[in-house]
Amino acid sequence: MVNFDMDGEALVKVGQFIPKAETGHDFVINEEAIVWTWTYAEIPCATCSESCGPGFRQTPLDGQPICCFNCSLCPEWEISNKMNMKHCMKCPEDEYPNKEKNQCVPKVVTFLDVSEPLGMAPICVALSCSLMTSLVLCVFVKFQDTPMVKANNRALSYTLLISLTFCFLCSLLFIGHSTAITCLLRQTIFVIVFTVAMSSILAKTTTVVLAFRLTTLGSRGRMWVQSRVSSSVVIICSGIQVILCGVWLGISPPYPDRDAYSEPGQIIIGCNEGSVIAFYSVLGYMGFLALGSFTLAFLARNLPDTFNEAKFITFSMLVFCSVWVSFLPTYQSTKGKAMVTVEIFSILASSAGLLSCIFIPKCYMILLRPDRNTHEGIKNKVISSGRNHSGSLPHHSYQRHNQF
Known about the structure:
Number of helices: 10
Order of helices and strands: EEEEEEEEEEEHHHHHEEHHHHH
Low-confidence stretches: 386-404
CATH class of the largest domain: Mainly Alpha
Mean pLDDT: 80
CATH superfamily of the largest domain: Rhodopsin 7-helix transmembrane proteins
Distance between the termini: 117 Å
Radius of gyration: 38 Å
Structural class: mainly alpha
Helix content: 40-55%
Largest sheet: 3 strands, mixed
Strand content: 5-15%
CATH architecture of the largest domain: Up-down Bundle
C-alpha cells in the first residue's frame, strides 16, 4: 500500500510466493517497488532482540512475546553452530567444544607414554634399582659362608632380594598403552611380589624374636627357628594373597578403560580396577603384613646388635608404611597420568626403602669392614656389647648365631 499527498492510497505488488518453484526462487521480492514512509529510514526489525550467533542459544523472556529473547552462552560440553538456535547440541564422547563453542574438535588420546619424560624417568629408576638389587644379591651369594650372611637367614635374604627385584620391574607394567593383559597383570603381579617381600620380612623378624626369646640350647623351642618354619610363613602368607587375587580376578577383574571426562580435551587410556573392594582388600592385606613385621621388629629392637636386624627392619617398615599411607589419599585425589605416576612412585619408593634400610648396612659390613665379618670379630663384639649392657656376657648369645 502506497499513500499519496491527496489522502489517496493504492496497493502496489512488490513480490510474490510461488509454491511450486525451486527452493530459493519460490519467494520473490522487488525491493525497488517498496516505498517507506518518512518514519522508517530502513527496513524495520521483525523481532525485539538481536540475533544470536553461533556459540549462543535463545533464552525466552518471561512475559514477553516469543520474538523477544536473550542470547545465552551454550553450557559446558555443548555447542551451537547456527544462528538463532533455541537449543545447544552435545558433542560426541570423543570430541569437545572449542573456546567459541561453535564446533566440536577431536579429543587427544593420552596415556603415560614411554617417550615422554614422565614415563622415561620411572623406567630409568626401576632398571637402576633392579640392577642394584641384583648386585646386592650377588654380594650375598659370594659371601654366603660369612657370619654376617648366615646370621640373617640366607634363604630369606635371597627370597627378599629376588622379590624386591621384581617389585622394581613390575612398575614397568604401569607405563604405556593399557591392554587387557597388562591391566590383569600389573596389579596382581605387584601385590603378589610385594606380599612375598613382606612375608619374607615377617619371617625374618619372627625368626629373630623366637631365636632370642623362646629358645635355649637343648629346648624344644629350637624347632621354631628352623628354616622350615620361616619357609612356611612365606608360603602361607603369600598363598593367602594369591587366593585373594584369584577371587578378585574371578569376580570383577581389572580392564582397559577410556576416561573422556576427567580432563577437558583428553581421552585418558588407563585401567579400571574392577572391584574396588577387592583392590583395597589386597592392599589392606599387604599393609597388615607390614604392620605385623613392624610390630615384631619394634619389640626385638633391643636384642643384641650382632645378630639382630630388627632395627633395620623397623626403619624399613616405617618407610614402607609412610609411603603407602600417603599414597592412598593422593591416589584418590589425582586423575589420569598423575594417578598412574603416583602408584609407580609408591612402588619404587617403598621398594628402595626396604633395600636401603635392610641390605645396604650389611653390604657396608661385608665389603668395607671385613674384619667385623668373622667369627672372632663377632665374638669380640658380643662380649663387648654384653658387658656394656649388663656387665656380663649374654648367655648363649654367640652359640645362637650358628642356628641361623
